[in-house]
Design goal:
9% strand, disordered N terminus, 664 residues, alpha/beta, two-stranded antiparallel ribbon, nine-stranded mixed β-sheet, Rossmann fold, 23 helices
Length: 664
């Protein structure tokens, strides 16, 4: 065992993949942004320009960077090589196959593979299959540790670790009746050998696997799913978990092409209208090594693979560039053996490069939209204020050139600066008054979809469901729940347009006599939530059209609806409420920051001017002190500009694109 541990560390040290490189670059970019935010906060404090408003916004930015994860969902029918691909991507560093991967059905329960940063421990948590009889969602059960079986994983012992991970493939036999009670379609299950009335089902419903792996510690998360039967009988996978993945890898077998069950999975769960997998929805033709034929040469092999690739693209209705041929098995062997030629032949690096680039581009764009734009505007405001300070300091410096007029000039400058200070003070008071008005508007937005209103809609929906004894009647009620929620969001949009007009008017008045063109209003939008709600509604209708809906007990259907669809709608509703509560503060934040910083600066300058005007020391001495202050202000301005340029620099994927263009 000790030798295996040393081998694992040796492989880990030398492992080098496109996926790890890209994820590492992305993490370094986020770490750099976090450091820039921390430096900017210190800069604001050093220059006495900090405020609670700005600090709260910067703290939310740090939380966004900290909580960010990259999720890849592996989907496909049994025996397509999903688990083997995960072994090649994640577990090659251990020098052996860690997850069970052999002929037949291996991963029997959906498995989330990640690193638990809070516990900082490797473990495997398993949810008993019997919990399906309760129709309680997995997301709810995750909050109850008593239900899960937990195994601590020793990553220093790969052999023992491999034995523990075999639990994800554990199965048992049950009667047809028990399988049906647990939500399985018995016709799609394997019959127990030697029996006609028992079938094979997984022991576990869901698995959570935390591993101390370099890639996983950087925020990569893998969702490994079983085949068609599991997808169809665990709606939460298709309603919540899969849609939230940044990328989908759809596994196919190169020797079989697109089978009927493959096509069913693709159409029902992946290639749906408005599916939110813009970062990547890839069809991976695995097991291309079965097409390798040394007798007919590389040209024949390449031609055969290309034909299967084109046929796959045609069958799935996607671009041929999104069909990626590879051999996960050979890729894993190549990584373990450090065989670069075999690794390139397996085409695993091509998959890693394309997928990681696409995923990271989407994640980078979210950070650019939700943080970088605001951060740049804040930095520009601070630089503008510091430039104003420098202008005043230079005026004071010039005033000492004529020692006979110096005192008078300084007093006049103090009076003028006092007037400017009072003007910004009044602007700040006006802005605070406007914010209170906007908070009232924000409360109106919140009430339109607040907890009380949402609970009332749920109450009416539940009452209607209990009164409807027909499946069609219940389907209509479930659909009406979504119709009502969509109307609620439409009402918010209507109200938000009025709110945005108010904000635009405030900005226009403020900028009328202030040189601050960089300040731009932030509109209130629920477009993303509206889209998510429409997608959920389509999934509900698809779910209701399933034949087994007509044979399911009413109470089970109601519980299922509330524990899957309503849970997701609730999450959308909470997002809108949070946005509505934050909007009054964030919409005027640029103006508040600018006015606060200008007021603070001018306040200090008035005090300094009056002090210098009454100072009896020689003009040259005071001028020398001003020169020192000017130099210090230039240093501070230079530091702010450096932070801005770092924040403005392209994220890793854009830099990689520029490098690719330069090479070409």
């Amino acid at each position: 065992m000790a030798n295996n541990g040393r081998r694992m560390k040796h492989v880990n040290k030398d492992i080098y993949t496109d996926l790890s490189v890209n994820v590492e670059a992305y993490q370094e970019w986020k770490d750099s942004l976090g450091a820039d935010i921390a430096q900017y906060r210190s800069w604001l404090i050093d220059n006495k320009l900090n405020s609670d408003d700005v600090d709260r916004r910067l703290e939310r930015g740090l939380e966004l960077l900290k909580d960010d994860q990259l999720t890849i969902a592996m989907i496909g029918e049994y025996s397509r090589g999903k688990t083997e691909l995960i072994n090649a991507l994640i577990f090659a560093e251990y020098g052996q196959r860690m997850l069970p991967s052999q002929a037949g059905r291996t991963t029997m329960c959906p498995t989330e593979i990640f690193y638990d940063g809070e516990r900082e421990q490797s473990y495997l948590k398993l949810l008993p299959i019997e919990t399906r009889s309760e129709s309680t969602s997995i997301s709810c059960l995750k909050r109850d540790n008593t239900i899960w079986t937990e195994l601590i994983i020793d990553t220093s012992d790969p052999d023992l670790m491999s034995q523990s991970l075999k639990q994800v493939a554990a199965t048992k036999s049950v009667s047809f009746a028990d399988a049906k009670r647990l939500g399985f379609d018995a016709k799609m299950l394997e019959i127990q050998p030697g029996s006609h009335d028992r079938v094979i089902i997984p022991v576990w419903r869901h698995a959570l696997m935390s591993l101390d792996s370099p890639l996983l510690k950087k925020g990569l998360r893998i969702l490994d799913t079983p085949g068609l039967n599991a997808l169809g009988s665990e709606p939460e996978l298709t309603i919540s978990m899969i849609p939230k993945a940044q990328a989908i890898i759809f596994l196919l077998s190169a020797d079989a092409g697109v089978t009927a069950s493959d096509l069913s999975i693709w159409k029902r769960f992946i290639h749906t209208k408005d599916a939110d997998h813009r970062a990547g929805r890839f069809a991976v033709l695995n097991k291309i090594d079965v097409l390798w034929d040394d007798l007919q040469g590389e040209t024949h092999v390449a031609s055969s693979i290309e034909k299967v690739r084109q046929a796959t693209a045609d069958n799935l209705g996607i671009d041929v560039g999104d069909v990626l041929p590879l051999s996960a098995k050979q890729g894993l062997l190549a990584r373990v053996r450090k065989d670069d030629l075999l690794l390139q032949k397996s085409a695993l690096p091509k998959l890693e490069k394309i997928i990681s680039r696409r995923i990271l581009q989407q994640k980078e764009q979210l950070i650019l939209d939700d943080l970088i734009d605001d951060l740049k505007q804040m930095l520009l405001s601070s630089q503008s204020v510091l430039n104003e300070k420098l202008s005043l300091l230079y005026e004071e410096y010039d005033a000492f050139e004529d020692s006979t007029m110096c005192s008078t000039v300084l007093k006049n400058m103090a009076d003028k600066t006092q007037q400017d200070h009072e003007a910004y003070y009044k602007k700040l008071i006006t802005l605070k008054s406007s914010r209170r008005l906007m908070q009232s508007q924000g409360e109106i937005l919140t009430q339109l979809i607040g907890d009380d209103r949402f609970k009332e809609i749920l109450k009416q929906t539940k009452r209607s469901l209990n009164e409807n004894w027909s499946t069609l009647g219940m389907t209509h009620t479930m659909n009406q729940f979504f119709v009502r929620m969509e109307k609620e969001l439409d009402n918010i949009c209507t109200e938000a347009k009025l709110a945005d007009k108010m904000v635009a008017a405030i900005y226009k008045r403020f900028k009328k006599d202030v040189n601050a063109d960089h300040l731009k209003p932030k509109t209130f939008s629920v477009t993303r939530q509206q889209k998510e709600l429409k997608i959920l509604r389509r999934k509900l209708l698809q779910f209701c059209r399933q034949p087994k809906m007509f044979m399911t007990e009413q109470s089970i259907l109601i519980t299922h609806f509330f524990n899957t669809f309503v849970v997701e709608v609730r999450a959308i509703q909470e997002q809108v409420v949070v946005a509505a509560k934050r909007w009054p503060e964030e919409a005027l934040l640029p103006l508040m920051q600018y006015a606060h910083e200008q007021k603070t600066l001018l306040e200090d300058q008035v005090a300094n001017l009056r002090k210098m005007a009454s100072d009896t020391r020689e003009a040259k001495v005071q001028q020398a002190e001003l020169k020192t202050e000017i130099d210090a202000a230039h240093i501070q301005l230079n530091e702010a500009e450096k932070i801005y340029h770092r924040v403005e620099s392209p994220p890793p994927s854009q830099q990689a694109d520029l490098q690719d263009i330069a090479i070409r």
